[in-house]
Design goal:
This protein is α/β, with parallel strands linked by helices and 477 residues long. The chain has two domains: 177 residues, Rossmann fold; 238 residues, NAD(P)-binding Rossmann-like Domain (Rossmann fold, 3-Layer(aba) Sandwich). The protein contains 16 helices and 14 strands. Strand 6, helix 7 and strand 7 form a beta-alpha-beta unit. The longest helix has 24 residues. The two termini are 25 Å apart. The chain binds nicotinamide-adenine-dinucleotide.
C-alpha cells in the first residue's frame, strides 16, 4: 500500500510545508537496488579501551570497498592495524555544523568489547558526540560488545548491558533513516555475515536491535551475492504479501524456493512462483505446494513433497492469520484458528520435518512473529498469544537443535505495508506507520532481507534470536 505522506514530504513543496509546521519528515529509506553499489563510502571507527575486533573489522571493511577514518578514541590502535592490512586510514574530523553533506560518513562503528567498567563508557560519549552529525542519510551505527553473561566481573557485565540503552537511544536521535544496532559477540564468533547485513541497505528497517552472535563456526559463501546458492527453502504463505517477498529475496540470493499456500490462493501462488522463474531463469522452475498448514495431514503432505525434492535446508514459517476482536467478543473459532495456524501447525510441521530428517543438518528455521507478540495488542489476544508462542519456540528449541547445527530464529515485523495492514482503519494505520524512529511503515522486502540474512550459512552463530523489523517501533520497545 502506498504511503502518500512519505511521497508528499519528500517533494520540495511538501518538505517545506512539513518543516514550517513541524510535521514528521520521514526519509525515503535507501534499499538494495539492482545496479546500485551495496557498500562504499567512509566508516568512522571509535573504541573503548582494549578493543578486540579491529582485525576482522579492517579485513571486512576493506573487502567491502569502504575507507575508514579513526576517531581519537581509536586512533592509536586502529592506524597500525589498518597499515598492517595495507588499508589507507586517517583521523576522523568532526563535522562542523552547517558543513556541506559530501563529507558525511556512511557508518559509525564502535568497538566496545574491551569495556569492563561503567567509567569507561565515557568513550561512547566522546565518539558519538563528535560523530553523530556526520552520518549520511540512511547511514548505519553499529556498536560491537560482548554478551554480558560472558563477562568476568559484575562491573563488566553491567557496563556491557549499558550498551543497549546507548544504542537504542542513538537510533531514536539519529533520524534521517539512520539505523543503530548492537551486536553482542561471543569471543571467537564470526561476524562477517551479520556486519555485512547491518551495514547494507538490506537492513533498512532494522533498528534498535540487539543481536547475539555465538562462536559456532560459520561457512562463508563463495559468492556473497548468492549466499543461498544450492539451498532449498520452504516458505509458507508465499502467495502474496510478506511471503511473496520472502520467496523473491531467497530466490534472488540463490535458493530454490518451495512456496506453499492454501488452495484458495493457488492462482496467486502460481503467479509468485512463475515470477521467480522469469526473474531467475537459470534456477529453473521453483516448486509450489498447495496445502492448508492447519490440516491434520499437512505435516505428512509437506514432508513427502519436500523429500521428493531431496529434503530442505531452510524453513520459513510465514503463513499467518488475524481474527481480531476483544476477548469478550471473540468467538471460540476465532481463538482456535489463529492459535492453530500461527503456532500449533508450525510445531506439528517442524516436529515431523525434524523427526524424519527432512530438514538437513545445518538447516535454518525462521518464524515470523510480530511486535504484537512482544507488546500485546488490543483486540488481538489470540494473535498476540500465537506470536508470543513463536518467540517461545525459538527460545525453547535453540539449544536442543544446536547439536544438529540447526539454528532457529524469529523476525518480529512492526507495521509493514501489506494487504493485512491496508485493512486497518485510517487513523490507527497512520499511527502504526509513524510511531517508530523511521516515521514510516516497512516494506515486505525489509522482512524478507532479514530472513535471508538469518538463513545464510554465514549466520551459523545466530540462534535463539528474535529480531524486530519495525523501524524501532515505540510499541513494545
Ligand atoms: N503485515 C504486517 O504488518 C505484519 C506485521 C507483523 C507480523 N506479520 C506476519 O507476517 C506474516 C505475513 O503477513 P502478511 O501481511 O503478508 O499477510 P497476508 O495475509 O497478506 O499473507 C498471508 C499468507 O498466508 C497464507 N495463509 C494463511 N493461512 C494459511 C494456512 N492455513 N495455510 C497456508 N497458508 C496460509 C495466506 O493465504 C496468505 O497468502 C504473517 O505471519 C503475519 O502475522 C505481518
Amino acid at each position: 500500500m502506498k504511503d502518500r505522506y512519505l511521497d508528499f514530504v519528500n517533494s520540495p513543496f511538501g518538505a517545506s510545508v512539513a518543516r514550517s509546521i513541524g510535521l514528521p519528515q520521514p526519509e525515503v529509506l535507501r534499499r538494495q537496488a539492482q545496479g546500485r553499489a551495496e557498500f562504499g563510502g567512509i566508516a568512522a571507527i571509535g573504541a573503548g579501551p582494549s578493543p578486540t575486533l579491529f582485525e576482522p573489522l579492517i579485513t571486512l571493511l576493506t573487502s567491502l570497498g569502504m575507507t575508514t577514518v579513526a576517531h581519537e578514541s581509536a586512533l592509536v590502535s586502529w592506524l597500525p592495524v589498518a597499515a598492517k592490512h595495507g588499508a589507507m586510514s586517517g583521523r576522523f574530523e568532526p563535522r562542523s555544523p552547517g558543513a556541506p553533506p559530501n563529507d558525511r560518513v556512511q557508518a559509525l562503528i564502535f568497538d566496545a568489547t574491551g569495556i569492563t567498567d561503567s567509567t569507561q563508557l565515557h568513550a561512547l560519549y566522546g565518539f558519538f558526540h563528535d560523530a553523530i552529525r556526520s552520518v549520511a542519510k540512511s547511514g548505519r551505527i553499529v556498536v560491537l560488545g560482548l554478551p554480558p553473561q560472558f563477562c568476568a566481573s559484575p562491573r563488566a557485565w553491567t557496563a556491557q548491558r549499558s550498551l543497549e540503552g546507548m544504542t537504542r537511544s542513538l537510533g531514536k536521535e539519529a533520524r534521517g533513516g539512520i539505523s543503530s544496532n548492537l551486536l553482542q559477540i561471543e569471543p571467537g564468533a564470526d561476524i562477517e555475515g551479520t556486519l555485512r547485513f547491518l551495514l547494507s541497505p538490506r537492513s533498512a528497517y532494522v533498528s534498535g536491535q540487539v543481536v547475539h552472535v555465538d562462536a559456532t563456526p560459520a561457512t562463508q559463501p563463495t559468492d556473497w551475492n548468492q549466499p543461498l546458492a544450492g539451498k532449498r527453502a520452504l516458505v509458507t504463505g508465499a502467495a502474496r504479501g510478506i511471503g511473496a517477498a520472502i520467496a523473491q529475496v531467497l530466490a534472488d540470493r540463490g535458493a530454490h524456493v518451495i512456496g506453499l499456500d492454501v488452495p484458495q490462493a493457488q492462482d496467486a501462488l502460481d503467479q509468485t512462483m512463475l515470477a521467480l522463474e522469469d526473474a531467475w531463469p537459470s534456477q529453473g522452475a521453483h516448486t509450489a505446494i498447495v496445502a492448508d498448514i492447519a490440516a491434520p495431514d499437512a505435516p505428512a503432505t509437506i514432508a513427502a513433497a519436500l523429500l521428493a525434492v531431496g529434503g530442505i535446508d531452510i524453513v520459513v514459517h510465514n503463513a499467518g492469520i488475524t481474527r481480531d476482536k476483544t476477548i469478550a467478543k471473540m468467538t471460540e473459532a476465532a481463538w482456535d484458528s489463529v492459535i492453530d495456524v500461527n503456532l500449533s501447525a508450525q510445531e506439528r510441521i517442524d516436529d515431523l520435518l525434524l523427526d524424519q530428517n527432512v530438514l538437513h543438518a545445518g538447516g535454518r528455521i525462521i518464524g515470523v512473529s510480530s511486535i504484537s507478540g512482544i507488546a500485546g495488542n488490543l483486540g488481538q489476544t489470540n494473535y498476540a498469544t500465537s506470536k508470543a508462542g513463536v518467540i517461545g519456540r525459538v527460545q525453547s528449541m535453540a539449544e536442543p537443535l544446536r547439536a544438529r547445527g540447526i539454528t532457529i530464529n524469529a523476525v518480529a515485523p512492526g507495521f509493514i505495508e501489506t494487504q493485512m495492514t491496508a485493512r486497518i482503519p485510517l487513523g490507527l494505520r497512520e499511527a502504526g506507520r509513524r510511531m517508530n524512529s523511521m516515521s514510516q511503515g516497512g516494506q515486505p522486502v525489509d522482512v524478507a532481507e532479514t530472513i535471508a540474512w538469518l538463513a545464510s550459512p554465514a549466520s551459523a552463530g545466530i540462534t535463539g534470536n528474535v529480531v524486530r523489523v519495525c523501524g524501532q517501533s515505540l510499541i513494545g520497545a
